[in-house]
Amino acid sequence: MAPLYNRYVPPKATAPVAAAPAPSAPAPASPDADKKRKRERSEEQKAERKAKKLRNKDVEEEEDAAAAPAIVAVTEAPVVEPVVPNEIKPNPKSEFAHVTNIKKRHKLEKEARKARKEAEKTGVNVGEAQAVSAEADAVAPSASSAKHNATAPGSEGEVDGEGLQDATAGETTRRKKRRKDTEAEQTAGAIEEVNGSESILPDQDGMVLDVTNGNVATTEPAKRRHKLEDVLQQAKKPSRKAKGESEDDHLKNYTGVMDKFQKARQLAELKEAEKPQEEKAGPEPEVQKRDLAPFPQPVNEPKEFKPTFSALPSWLTKPTTISSEARVSFAEMELSESTVKHLADLSFREALPVQQALIPLLLQPGTKGSKFLPGTDNVLPDVAVSAATGSGKTIAYLLPMIEALKSTTSQERLRGLVVVPTRELVMQVAAVAESLAKGSSLKVGISSGVGRFKDEQQRLINTGRKYDPAAYAELMQKAHRRDNPPPIDSEDFEAYADELEQWTDRQEQELQDALHRLEDHVPEYTSAVDLLVCTPGRLLEHLGSTLGFSIASVAWLVLDEADKLLDQQYDGFLQRVDEELSRPRTEVEQDAREKYLRAKGLWDDRFERRVRKVVLSATMTRDISKLTALKLRRPHLVVVQGAEQKHARSVDATNDTEMLDSETGAFEIPPTLKEYCVPVGDGSEKPLQLLDLLQSRVLASQAPKSIKESQAERASDSDSDSSSSDSDSSDESDSDDSDSSSSSSEDVSEDDSDDSEASSSSDESEVSKTEKAPTASHGQESGSAAPAPTVLIFTASTESASRLSHLLRGLRPDWSAFITTLTKTTHNANHRATKSTDPVITIATDRAGRGLDTLSGRRITHVLQYDVPRALTAYVHRVGRTARAGASGEAWTFYSDREARWFVNEIMRAVNVRRSEPVERVRLQAGGEELKDKFAEVLAGMREAVFGGGK
Ligand SMILES: Nc1ncnc2c1ncn2[C@@H]1O[C@H](COP(=O)(O)OP(=O)(O)OP(=O)(O)O)[C@@H](O)[C@H]1O
Fold first, then answer.
1. How far is residue 256 from each of residues 9, 139, 823, measured CA to CA in Å?
2. For ligand 1, atom 27: residue with the closest CA
3. Residue 337 in contact with residue 367, Cβ under 8 Å?
4. Which residue of 252, 275, 339, 502 lies most exposed, with the fewest beta carbons within 10 A?
């Protein structure tokens, strides 16, 4: 009994096969037939074993050379050996000679012949055969399953061999089920056999096929047979090996797949190579182990709080700043040659910082040195300037203004208006303007209350005549109506009364002018000046009363010392000016161009002449409520800052000071100014201390002979202490207590007065005279000798100034020639022409505090504040009368015990004052006994003069 493990017998579970009823099942076999069959089987088995041996040998050879999986599969597939009976000699002529059963053989031969015939008839379709071959190749990879199934046919063949021989075409169901696998097996077997020069292959169902001639003898239907034949045909073709094809050639059949595979592999390799080195080889990041404690959170660092709120518009908080040390020549500013030459003639060669900043801003667009291009007139900014006292603001605004006025043809209209707070300043500014306008047809006028109002009117307005009968008749009719009132009880009387009420000085003037001229002619008024420098009070007067006076054509409006003008209001002059500038021009006020364009209907708002506004001060206000009244357009703030002050400020700069700077603006003290303060106790000996200061510190070095003599006298005087006087201290306290409005009202009343000729004091004419030819200030005046002292003493009021003047003259009669007063009532000031070597001592009120540049044509060397100023701004302006335009100067301030706290806090340590050096405190002597006696004597004389009885 053969061992079971030698041969795999598939389970009988091949249900369809097992269950399928054999259509042509043989009838129960006879015992002889059984024997015969057994014998045949044993013979077959022998032949099979023999064939197997041979095959195994062949397979080993095949395996060595095999590369393609299909081939391997095929060769590995168990092969069903052909059955070759040993006993029966095969008929070489017969295709089925190996079949021992003659009957069977005949039958097979018969069927083979039949099949061959049919094949001959239809012809072998080579293409189909190739397709079948390809199909076999495709199936080859599943050779492992084929291997498994390949044994089945063998076993089935054993079980159902005969039944299969008689199988009919009705077994299609069973065959279909196995077709796929068996076809592959058959094909593989066929190929195998061909390769091994075998000619006989067993069918999957055990039938024997003779493929020697490429014929298929089977009981299968013709279709299947043909397919098998095709496969055999294909198999007959020389194999790759036989043809000598290399494995590479074979692989070409799989080029597409292989290409894809190669590409994918290359891509993966590339990606791997591109990975960053550390990613590839870097060590694994260390995992930080933590317990359950909360993660540390970012610390919210406390930030320093800086308040950003500001009620000010950006143009005030972000000004254009320029260093007070910036120097550049006028020639470098690309001004016109004639302008540069003209300035050089006036000894101005270098532009001061404020001039460098302001002149390009204000020059007419398109002119040389202007910052703006032609055609940009409508977007020109109005300018506010904050620059220290004596920094050259006057020329900074007058030069571009005069250049602009010069460039336009004379139209007999007022085109430039400069408003300053005091008549002294009017004179001073007008003198600079005249010097700058020299050589041109420009006319500069002044209006300051100096002289009769009528004379001033005549100087400002030219009166001509124009032929206009209709206007003349209308005018006469009005005059007749006025002079011939209707009866008082008539209806017309009321209208007459109303008309009379509105009859103005202007109308009266016009009527008078008409009556004094030719018939049918009406008077015609034109401006006699192109540029007017005036005080606000006088300006209002002219606007109200002067026939033909109009500012409707003004293109430039300058407010110098603007903060003072804004503070004092001057009877609302700003509103009045604004009304005048914004009202529509009357036909008389229109120029020829405007008239033409209006007549053509082409006049447009864009053509409205706008006024360029410039506001300046050393203590420019940042009070927006005040600045709003100026109605500035696209305002621009220019600030001149001292480098030294900046440094000094940075040392102790605080947020407070920065805030103050932006909110109120810091005030600059000229760096060349030396400030002193003198404590005077209760103030009872203040006049004596002033005398001591003048003698010992001010006039000592440069004092003229007479003063030196006086000093010698003083030296010979006793040095004993004197008893204090009482009268002057009461004066001081009066002035200290006086409210701030007293001085202001004093200024206002003076500015506004329509003075008679009596008001043209010698002081004023002196100022005017000396300012006619302004020149550059220098630190030292020309000549080898140092300048004689020019002293300006500030007092709190006109009375105080007057008393001090008397006292000084009484104490030092030899100084009387040099002492003058500059107050509201100094009509008879005994100001004499002084030689350059004589000192000048001028006692003034705050009216000299603003803008005053020189005294008797000389720069001021010392400012003495006999009475403390009322405000910081007053202090800044007072001390600013000296140390101007880079010259040196000294400022002395006396303060009593009562004023000490205020002075120290508000002036000496003011946070919004930038000074290069702190204020120095100096103690002064009150003189000897003899001087004190004299002082008492002088006081008694003054009392007698005032009260007439010495009480
Ligand atoms: N470019 C210059 N070079 C030299 N000196 C000049 C120049 N410009 C002006 N000055 C002189 O500087 C002095 C002060 O000028 P100005 O009166 O214009 O000063 P200010 O700024 O108006 O002062 P304040 O604020 O006190 O009115 C004047 O004596 C003037 O002649």
1. 41, 19, 116
2. 851
3. no
4. 502
